[in-house]
Amino acid sequence: MAAYSSSLSSIFICFLFGSFLISEAVVPANETFRYVNQGDLRFGNDYLDFVSEYAPTYRPLPPFTFPFQLCFYNTTPNAYTLGLRMGTIRSQSVMRWVWEANRGKPVRENATFSLGSDGNLILAEADGRIVWQTNTANKGVVGFAILPDGNVVLRDSRGNFVWQSFDYPTDTLLIGQSLRVRGGPYKLVSRASVTNNVDGDYSFVIEPKRLVLYYKNNMPYWSSTFPELNRKNVTIVNATLVIQESEYEENNYNSLRCNILNGQSWEFPYIDMGQVQYNSSLSYLRLGIDGNLRLYTYRSNVQGGATWKLLYTMFDKSQDDNGMIFEDECHLPNRCGKFGLCKDSQCVGCPTPNGVVEWSEDCNTKSPGCKASGFKYYELKGVDHFTVKYTGGTGPVKRSDCESKCTKDCKCMGYFYHTDRSRCWIAYELKTLSRVGNSTHYAYIKTPIS
Fold first, then answer.
1. Which of 9, 156, 276, 434 can bridge 252 by disulfide, Cβ–Cβ 3.0-4.6 Å?
2. Carries keyword Glycoprotein (predicted)?
3. Is residue 203 a part of any domain in this protein?
4. Which tens digits make up the pLDDT trace of 164-176?
5. What distance in Å separates the CA atoms of residue 404 and residue 415, rounded to the nearest whole number?
6. Quick one: pLDDT at residue 47?
7. CA dist., res. 158 & res. 179, Å (int)
8. What range does the domain containing 196 cover?
9. What does R_g of the chain's alpha carbons equal in angstroms?
10. Are 285 and 203 contained in the same domain?
11. Do the domain assignments include residue 322?
């Protein structure tokens, strides 16, 4: 028994000693670096200087693994993002930004990007103020790498990832990258605009029972409908962008595949995102500035450089080769700007209290004010709000009660009512309204009494 206890003690001591060695590992001097944001700028809108997404000015940094490279880039003067670019200088196609360290927290000229001997990866201003870091000091990091799949990693002496960029997506997923319901990244967030690199209005979120696209965090304009998840205890664990194998390799396809809990071993709900082109695993899924989901693939061996192909667009009135119907663009909240009627992906009218007139970008509603005596409602028949398709509304409820709820809510801009089911939706933003064939669907829009 004493010998057994002694053996256990030895094992425990070895384990502690091994853990101590890993945690106290020092990054070798030849693996540390410090890059300064200074020197000549390249221009991302000039074909002579290689075109980059958002037409920025940028400075490439030495870390490079084909076709990925880290750069400082900006779309407004002296406000730089540290981003990972996908593409090569030989390409005559636009190079894309597929990961960013410091969205919404830009750095200035002479900022530094460094990996110290303690293993912490730091982006700091010239005065030393830390803007972004991996918080990996003294956690066993011995090296930095950009992997061939675009994952930026810090590794320990055993090759394990202490930190990886795949756990911190912005608006993009690369092949092999996942969203997770628990314990990891759970959403993509759009960019605000081409020039304004802060979080935008749209998010793509993984939830236990569905994948959802939200406008301003609480207004869903699309969600998945996987039959497997209708069972009580079956939930999503993660969703990974993968190349799905088929019987014939030439028919392999890109998909966003979900792993589920308490399901059958063969059940993998997924979204088909187009047949693999060029036998390439260099694809990415992007939540765009406009709230649309698109998948692009990269071909690197064409004559004269490389090219991109758009394989999948979620909101696009079209069919793929298999006849799959995509979502109508009318479900995009901003398809018709601040206000407008949409049909078959086109803006077809501007509603007013006096009827529908020709749509233009100036189409908008007038502020109704808060006093019930100062506004009235006008009716639109055969119309739905962009949230109606993927939310249940409230009810059954009388239309008068639905209207009363909107009237008492100063923020309510109008309400939507289905007479066939007595369902009510309150709208705080109107945006794009869809023309529908169902005459039991009504919209009631607040307008000031002039």
1. 276
2. yes
3. yes
4. 999 999 999 999 9
5. 10
6. 42
7. 26
8. 172-313
9. 26
10. yes
11. no
pTM: 0.89
> What is the distance between the alpha carbons of residues 369 and 67, in angstroms, rounded to a whole number?
54
CATH for 267: 2.90.10
Residues 298 and 371 in one domain: no
> From CA 424, how far away is CA 418, in angstroms rounded?
7
Residues 71 and 141 in one domain: yes
pLDDT for res 231? 86
Residues 389 and 374: their CA atoms lie apart, in Å, by 31
Beta pairing class for 130-133 and 121-124 = antiparallel
Which pair of structure tokens corresponds to residue 210? 């569905």
Task: Kindly state whether residues 179 and 122 are assigned to the same domain.
Answer: no
Which residue in the block uniquely carries the two structure tokens 């071993």? 265
Same domain, 343 and 269: no
Among candidate residues 129, 149, 165, the one where a domain is terminated? 165
Asked whether the beta carbons of 259 and 63 are under 8 A apart, the reply is no
SS (H, E, C) the chain: CHHHHHHHHHHHHHHHHHHHHHHCCCCCHHHCEEEECCCCCEECCCHHHCCECCCCEEEEEEEEECCEEEEEEECCCCCEEEEEEECCCCCCCCEEEEEECCCCCCECCCCEEEECCCCCEEEECCCCCEEEECCCCCCCCCEEEECCCCCEEEECCCCCEEEEHHHCCCCEEECCCEEECCCCCCEEEEECCCCCCCEEEEEEEECCCCEEEEECCCEEEEECCCHHHHCCCCEEEEEEEEEECCCCHHHCEEEEEEEEECCCCCCCCEEEEEECCCCCCCEEEEECCCCCEEEEEEEEEECCEEEEEEEEECECCCECCCCCECECHHHCCCCCCCEEEEECCEEEEEEECCEEECCCCCCCCCCCCCCHHHEEEEEEECEEECCHHHCCCECCCCHHHHHHHHHHCCCCCEEEEECCCCEEEEECCCEEEEECCCCCEEEEEEEECC
- Indicate the average pLDDT of the chain: 87
Co-location of 40 and 160 in the same domain: yes
Looking at the fold, whether 160 and 36 belong to one and the same domain comes out as yes
Residues 363 and 280 in one domain: no
For the stretch 39-77, pLDDT in tens is: 988 775 554 445 788 888 899 999 999 889 999 999 999
Number of domains present in the structure of the chain: 3
Asked if residue 6 belongs to a domain, the reply is no
Cis peptide before 77, with omega less than 30 degrees from 0?
A: no
Question: Domain boundary residue among 313, 346, 371?
Answer: 313
